[in-house]
Amino acid sequence: MRLLQPVFCVFGKHHRSRGRAWNDGSTFRSWCEGCGKPMIRDMRGWSVDPDPPVGKQH
Ligand SMILES: [Zn+2]
């Protein structure tokens, strides 16, 4: 996580990391490259995960 959050994160447009996506069995998850928040992919695309799995981050 960077000290200075990128502008696109401030406006809610997080960029998930391409190389770090993983599948927990049913859902693809990754992290924002800018601020490090956990992200989840649903039918609408990638968004910030409001309830990330405990113990599986990084
Ligand atoms: Zn972000």
Radius of gyration: 11 Å
Structural class: mainly beta
- Mean pLDDT across all amino acids: 84
Number of strands: 4
Low-confidence stretches: none
Helix tally equals 1
- Ligands present: zinc ion
- Our estimate of the beta-strand percent is 25-35%
> What is the quaternary state of this protein?
single chain
Cα(first) to Cα(last) distance is 12 Å
- Characterize the main sheet: 4 strands, antiparallel
Question: Which strand order do you get reading across the main beta sheet?
Answer: 1-2-3-4
Query: H/E series, N to C?
Result: HEEEE
**Large-scale geometry:** globular
Give an overview in words.
By secondary structure, the chain is mostly beta strands. It has one domain (7-48). The chain contains one helix and four strands; from the N terminus they run αββββ. The protein has one helix at 7-10; strands spanning 22-23, 28-31, 38-42, 45-48. Strands 1-2-3-4 form a four-stranded antiparallel beta sheet, with no helix packed on it. β1 and β2 form a beta hairpin. The longest helix is centred in the N-terminal third of the chain and has 4 residues, at 7-10. The protein is globular. Bound molecules: zinc ion. Residues 9, 14, 32, 34-35, 37 line the site of zinc ion.
What's this entry about, in short?
The chain has 58 residues and is mainly beta.
